[in-house]
Amino acid sequence: MKLDYSLKNMTMRAYYTMIDHRDYITENEDWDWNKIMDVLNEKLMPEYKAVVGTHCPDIQHFLSAYDNPPIFVHASDTVNYSELNSGQLFMLEKQDDIDNCITTIYTNDPDIIAEQNLDYYSSDGEPYWEEDYGPV
User: Fold this and answer.
1) Where do the domains of the chain lie?
2) Which residue of 43, 48, 74, 115 could cross-link 92, Cys pair, CB 3.0 to 4.6 Å?
3) pLDDT value of residue 135
Protein backbone atom coordinates (compact mmCIF):
# COMPACT_ATOMS: atom_id res chain seq x y z
CA MET A 1 0.00 0.00 0.00
CA LYS A 2 1.36 3.41 -0.89
CA LEU A 3 0.33 6.29 1.34
CA ASP A 4 0.53 9.93 0.28
CA TYR A 5 2.42 11.98 2.85
CA SER A 6 2.55 15.34 1.08
CA LEU A 7 0.74 18.38 2.41
CA LYS A 8 -1.08 19.33 -0.79
CA ASN A 9 -4.81 20.09 -0.66
CA MET A 10 -4.69 20.60 3.10
CA THR A 11 -7.23 23.44 3.14
CA MET A 12 -10.11 21.09 2.33
CA ARG A 13 -11.84 18.97 5.02
CA ALA A 14 -11.10 15.35 5.80
CA TYR A 15 -13.59 13.05 7.49
CA TYR A 16 -12.69 9.65 8.86
CA THR A 17 -13.82 6.83 11.05
CA MET A 18 -11.93 4.01 12.74
CA ILE A 19 -12.93 0.56 13.86
CA ASP A 20 -11.42 -2.41 15.63
CA HIS A 21 -11.48 -5.28 13.15
CA ARG A 22 -12.23 -7.78 15.93
CA ASP A 23 -15.69 -6.22 16.27
CA TYR A 24 -16.50 -6.88 12.61
CA ILE A 25 -15.24 -10.40 11.88
CA THR A 26 -15.32 -13.75 13.64
CA GLU A 27 -12.17 -15.57 14.73
CA ASN A 28 -12.03 -17.81 11.64
CA GLU A 29 -13.21 -15.21 9.13
CA ASP A 30 -10.82 -13.44 6.76
CA TRP A 31 -10.77 -9.64 6.63
CA ASP A 32 -12.66 -8.31 3.62
CA TRP A 33 -12.33 -4.56 2.96
CA ASN A 34 -15.31 -4.54 0.57
CA LYS A 35 -17.57 -6.24 3.10
CA ILE A 36 -16.54 -3.91 5.93
CA MET A 37 -17.00 -0.82 3.74
CA ASP A 38 -20.48 -2.06 2.82
CA VAL A 39 -21.32 -2.50 6.51
CA LEU A 40 -19.97 0.97 7.34
CA ASN A 41 -21.85 2.57 4.47
CA GLU A 42 -25.12 1.00 5.63
CA LYS A 43 -24.55 2.82 8.92
CA LEU A 44 -23.13 6.10 7.55
CA MET A 45 -25.27 6.75 4.47
CA PRO A 46 -26.85 9.02 3.40
CA GLU A 47 -24.66 11.59 5.18
CA TYR A 48 -21.22 9.98 4.66
CA LYS A 49 -19.71 7.32 2.43
CA ALA A 50 -16.55 5.31 3.19
CA VAL A 51 -14.34 5.46 0.09
CA VAL A 52 -10.93 4.14 1.12
CA GLY A 53 -9.47 2.29 4.08
CA THR A 54 -6.19 1.08 5.50
CA HIS A 55 -4.65 -0.10 8.74
CA CYS A 56 -3.44 2.90 10.75
CA PRO A 57 -0.63 1.97 13.17
CA ASP A 58 -0.59 5.36 14.94
CA ILE A 59 -3.54 7.75 14.75
CA GLN A 60 -1.44 10.75 15.85
CA HIS A 61 0.76 10.49 12.73
CA PHE A 62 -2.39 10.51 10.61
CA LEU A 63 -4.08 13.39 12.45
CA SER A 64 -1.01 15.61 12.55
CA ALA A 65 -0.39 15.29 8.79
CA TYR A 66 -3.29 17.65 8.04
CA ASP A 67 -3.37 21.44 8.44
CA ASN A 68 -7.03 21.13 9.49
CA PRO A 69 -7.36 18.05 11.70
CA PRO A 70 -9.63 15.39 10.19
CA ILE A 71 -13.10 15.17 11.69
CA PHE A 72 -13.99 11.88 13.35
CA VAL A 73 -17.40 10.44 12.45
CA HIS A 74 -18.90 7.80 14.72
CA ALA A 75 -19.80 4.61 12.87
CA SER A 76 -21.10 2.73 15.91
CA ASP A 77 -23.88 3.42 18.38
CA THR A 78 -22.43 1.00 20.92
CA VAL A 79 -18.62 1.36 20.77
CA ASN A 80 -16.61 4.58 21.00
CA TYR A 81 -13.82 4.10 18.46
CA SER A 82 -12.71 7.74 18.69
CA GLU A 83 -10.16 6.81 21.36
CA LEU A 84 -8.39 4.10 19.31
CA ASN A 85 -4.67 4.71 18.83
CA SER A 86 -4.51 2.24 15.95
CA GLY A 87 -6.94 0.25 13.87
CA GLN A 88 -8.71 0.17 10.55
CA LEU A 89 -9.12 3.73 9.32
CA PHE A 90 -11.60 4.77 6.64
CA MET A 91 -11.73 8.08 4.80
CA LEU A 92 -15.22 9.40 4.24
CA GLU A 93 -16.94 11.64 1.73
CA LYS A 94 -19.50 14.00 3.18
CA GLN A 95 -22.28 13.51 0.66
CA ASP A 96 -23.50 17.11 0.63
CA ASP A 97 -19.94 18.47 0.15
CA ILE A 98 -18.06 15.84 -1.90
CA ASP A 99 -16.01 18.39 -3.86
CA ASN A 100 -14.41 19.73 -0.67
CA CYS A 101 -13.55 16.39 0.93
CA ILE A 102 -10.05 15.02 1.21
CA THR A 103 -10.13 11.25 0.78
CA THR A 104 -6.40 10.64 0.40
CA ILE A 105 -4.79 9.13 3.48
CA TYR A 106 -1.86 11.28 4.60
CA THR A 107 0.70 10.49 7.25
CA ASN A 108 3.88 11.89 8.72
CA ASP A 109 4.92 8.56 10.26
CA PRO A 110 8.66 8.30 9.56
CA ASP A 111 8.54 4.49 9.41
CA ILE A 112 5.78 4.47 6.80
CA ILE A 113 7.47 7.23 4.80
CA ALA A 114 10.78 5.33 4.83
CA GLU A 115 9.00 2.12 3.80
CA GLN A 116 7.23 3.89 0.94
CA ASN A 117 10.52 5.26 -0.34
CA LEU A 118 11.85 1.71 -0.79
CA ASP A 119 11.53 0.04 -4.18
CA TYR A 120 9.37 -3.08 -4.17
CA TYR A 121 9.67 -5.43 -7.12
CA SER A 122 7.92 -8.62 -8.03
CA SER A 123 9.68 -11.63 -9.53
CA ASP A 124 9.00 -10.35 -13.05
CA GLY A 125 10.78 -7.04 -12.35
CA GLU A 126 7.63 -4.91 -12.39
CA PRO A 127 7.07 -2.53 -9.46
CA TYR A 128 4.79 -3.99 -6.85
CA TRP A 129 3.04 -2.29 -3.93
CA GLU A 130 0.83 -4.15 -1.49
CA GLU A 131 -2.47 -2.30 -1.41
CA ASP A 132 -5.40 -2.46 0.92
CA TYR A 133 -8.66 -1.15 -0.47
CA GLY A 134 -8.79 2.00 -2.51
CA PRO A 135 -6.44 4.45 -4.23
CA VAL A 136 -3.97 5.18 -1.46
Assistant:
1) 13-116
2) 48
3) 41
How big is the chain, counted in residues?
A: 136
DSSP designation for 79: -
Predicted model pTM: 0.75
Q: Ramachandran region of residue 114, left (φ > 0), alpha (ψ -120 to 50) or beta? A: alpha
C-alpha angle with apex 98: 84 to 35, nearest 5 degrees?
50
> Cis ω on the peptide bond leading into residue 46 (within 30° of 0)?
yes
Residues 6+ apart with CB under 8 A from 117: none
**Termini Cα distance of the chain:** 7
